[in-house]
Write a structure and sequence with these properties.
388 residues; two-stranded antiparallel ribbon; 9% strand; 9 strands; disordered N terminus; alpha/beta; globular
Length: 388
Amino acid sequence: MADAKVIPFGEEPRSRRAGRRAQGRGSKSSSAAASSAASSASEPASPSPSPSPSSSPSPSEAPSGPGPGRHSLASVPEQPDAVEDRMADEKHGPNDAHAPGPEAPRPGDSSWDRRLAEGLAFLRRRVTGDYEVDEFGYDKELTDQVLMSLIRPLYENYFRVEVKGIENIPSDGGALVVSNHSGTLPLDGLMMQVAVHDNHPAGRHLRLLAADLVFMLPVVNELARKAGHTLACAEDAERLLERGEIVGVMPEGFKGLGKPFGERYKLQRFGRGGFVSTALRHGVPIVPCSIVGAEEIYPMIGNSKTLARLLGFPYFPITPTFPWLGPLGALPLPTKWTIQFGEPIPTDGYPPEAAEDPMLMFNLTDQVREQIQHTLYKLLVQRRSVFF
């Protein structure tokens, strides 16, 4: 033992290092790890002085921790294969094979596949004519999948419509929704249609009664029919109510749509109460509707009656931007809208002959008008700004 050569711990013999230099070199990190592991495994530990037999402690008195006369065990370094496995686990995950596997499906893939399939099926039905329209020309599938999708960005992002009282529209059976009318162009009717379509819990559809001019214009006529609009006459309204539809009417007509900006939110005359007579004949509730925000989209400061007569329009609006800015002036201002459906007024408690009572029709018409006007004033007081 006295002649034994002490080799410092961690130092590899020169002959072994010379032999390793002759081998092919791998990556820098792998060669260093392999050299360290080989030297640690092959070198003997530094000998310690042998204690005399008289000073050897008994097994029960042997110290448990490192101290004089005892060397602590050095930690065994990781083998090269273990090092490579650990590095691969950190890169690919503990349960991942080192070769890249098939890419996991993205969460939206199935949704996009379904939408694509539905779109192709829709186009096939359009091409083959395998779709249905009712006696008024209403195309429910086209309205739900195309027309509403075109109007919805204007409804949600431009006018940011807030809907209140949608639960006042019945879940089944017919009803007559009566609303104020304003805005120079009849965008309020379209926004009200989207509000019912997108917010009613029973998924009801609003069938609007439109003026004759709508069905005299090219392209607009066809689109209005496809969207479920029909002529504003008692016969069409009664046929829709008999089928249990939600019918929308704006009794102010062109008087409300084309009124000057100085008379905004002041309801015009509601006609002779024909909508009340229709509701009484079929015993359906009347739901008042108040729309705030439409009056400011085209502030009408003038009316060119000469141009209106030449074009066959009831009025020709002049606004701060139109016709001065040309087509750009026809862009509506991005006002903030609120649509509130009020408490329904029942009509099923009246006898059948009540529809011919002019005094009753006048009283109910005035009640509906006053309720809409009162709600408009209340919404205007609550509104923070025209645009927010």
